[in-house]
Amino acid sequence: MTTHTTGTEARSPGARRELRFAVTVVLAATAVNLGLYAIGRLAGATLRLDPAVGPANHQITAPDVAWKTLVPLAAGVLVLLLARRRSTRWLTAVTVVGVVVALGTGAVPPFGAHDPLTGVLLAGMHTVPGVAIVLVAAALRRGVSGQRDVDVAEHPASGRSR
Fold first, then answer.
1. Is the pTM for the entire model greater than 0.70?
2. What domain range is 105 assigned to?
3. Is 132 inside any structural domain?
4. Fewer CB near the last or first residue (10 Å), C or N of the chain?
């Protein structure tokens, strides 16, 4: 059964807390990827790759890492937030798609890396957003489940489900 969140519910303290958590996870994932980038530079990785699309011999830079983590992950989290408003089934489906995309895109860059260390770093950098999606989805699911428990406690005869 599907229920829709009203504007009042979307501005509730619980919704604001979930949004703050989601933003924190996105920023933390970006910081982790920048940390991996820094470790790669210190360890002597070339941080060059021949991407499947675009010019060969691409030099990976910190701004590349930052925006290519932040923007897609923020978009994915936005889709999770919208899916959560629809139902827990939608939230689950979008979570699975998000993880598959994050991990699936991580399988390609290592093949174009100029050295094994860069390949490992790139695979790790693509894993971080997949983990972030799972963390945000789990928090949203807890929020949805907690709200359902409150709804049923307040209106036991309705048995309302999300």
1. yes
2. 7-151
3. yes
4. N
